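User: Is it possible to get a 3D structure for a protein together with its bound compound? The compound here is iron/sulfur cluster. I've pasted both below.
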Amino acid sequence: MNKNDSSVIGKLLADHGFESTTDPRSADVYIINTCTVREHAANRALAFTAGLEEWRKAGNRILAVVGCLAQSNADEITKRLKHVDLILGPDAYREIGNYVTQITGTKSRIIDTKLSAETYCGIFHRPNAVADFVSIMRGCSNYCSYCVVPYVRGPARSRASDDIRKEIVHLVEYGVRDITLLGQNVNEYHHESMGFAELLQHVSVIPGVFRIRFLTSHPKDFTRETVQVIKENNNICEWFHLPLQSGSNRILQLMNRKYTKEHYNGLVEHIRSQIPESTITTDIITGFPTETEQEFIETLNTLREIKFDDAYMYRYSIRPGTKASSMPSLDEDTIKARLAESIQVKNEIVVEKTKAMIGKVYEVLFESAARGNGSRGKTRGNKNVIVQEKIKPGEVRNVRITEVKGQTPIGVVADA
Ligand code: SF4
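Assistant: Yes, that's possible. Here is the predicted structure of the complex:
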């Protein structure tokens, strides 16, 4: 979502005559787009901003801190980081060009952290890659007990389907071939009478759309109708990122996830029965407050049973103001040990699943050069694949997987 927000900010500044640079230290305006979903990301952003004091004072420059950390920690940034000129929350970007112009004239600091119904309708950035994002929703109303997003991005609101369609047409005109529809919980998309399954259907018929994906899903809202639409439309990739978070029903309840392990397993079974070639990935949080050893083992067992194609493993990170922040925390050593063990189990499964790709042929959309003379592309299942041949970004080739290095499949072009 932040990558997409950075594109929105870039477009808004381009409309005010600014150009982006690959050498940030030579810039007139330096914008740090921040995340606060975990403590580590928030601390890094603060430290990085502190490190720009000399840069800021060395010329007639503007330093901006934007995004979720700016929203949640505006007071702290104002007091501690006096060299920051502009502090904007995620709903305040529309005015960024005007704010920069005002600061240039007045040299005074501007802070705007108002939350609103903003969806950045009508702002179509110029893409510079074959894969790009289209935000279909903003905010979240689910209040998972560990998560700060509803507080810093406001309640869920859906963008008009016609505006989404126009942006996709625009991206396709610029050569984008792989489009990811974005939202904190895309399955809750609802605009006028259109739900997420209908939206998927609606955008899949746009001429020239080669691949559509979506991120992130919530297991409580994922419908069988959506599975059916994916099954029936060849340009919707059969990649399902379904955050499980925990394999223990008690922890899921404490997390306020509103589904059970059994519901989750049923969804996975349904997807695999309808679309056997599907790829399923997940997110896991280990060390949630009060998680017992037995409940942690339930999560490991669920990882082993489902055999995800990939999983993003996170240690629980306390976020001030959330419900979980008042629950009794586990000790640091236990959290670290559980994270390490879960990563090890996940790695074994991912390597095993990736090795099962050897000998098979996959449709790969190439996105960029790889180390050496090779090229990197993605399968429909969102797996990065490397080949030694030089292939232009945007080209689609059949690739036979010949080996696996680490967790990356390596292959050769095997066009008929
Ligand atoms: S669904 Fe839950 S985890 Fe995801 S953004 Fe919303 S509150 Fe956070």
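The chain has three domains: 2-112, 131-355, 361-413. The first strand starts at residue 29 and ends at 34.
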